[in-house]
Amino acid sequence: MCYARLLLADGSHSIATFKDSGADVNIIDEILALQLGISHVPLSCPILANALDGHLLGTVSHQTTPVSMLISGRVKRDLRASVSTTHLMSFEDELCDSLDYDEIISESEKLNPDLDL
User: Fold this and answer.
1) Which end of the chain is least crowded, N or C, by CB within 10 Å?
2) What is the pLDDT of residues 17-37, one digit of tens each?
3) Which residues contact 31 (CB under 8 A, 6 or more apart)?
4) How many domains in the chain?
5) Going by C-beta distance under 8 Å and a sequence separation of 6 or more, which residues neighbour residue 56?
6) Could you list the residue range(s) of the whole structural domain that residue 88 is in?
7) Is 116 domain-assigned?
8) pLDDT given for residue 41 in this prediction
């Protein structure tokens, strides 16, 4: 787990993040997005979210508008996150139950040179 700073129009907010090298997308909890005033828009085609074992976790039907984030000392601009309304953020592993992540960040986004300053 690490902390990142969302850079929003009304100021910055520190959030707990989980960097997942296997994630295909960034994910943020819908309630957190609403609390922070991050708008979201419907996806043209909803995405099924599956666990590694293949079982369906839920459906993602919205995406945030672009936001900037400071993580590991580098600013990432125009990041979009899939909005989770089905508690995709909860982990079944007992060790992870005690952890509280606000957002999951895909490692590929972190390393994308087009997003780096």
Assistant:
1) C
2) 877 777 777 888 888 888 889
3) none
4) 1
5) 48, 49, 50
6) 2-111
7) no
8) 93
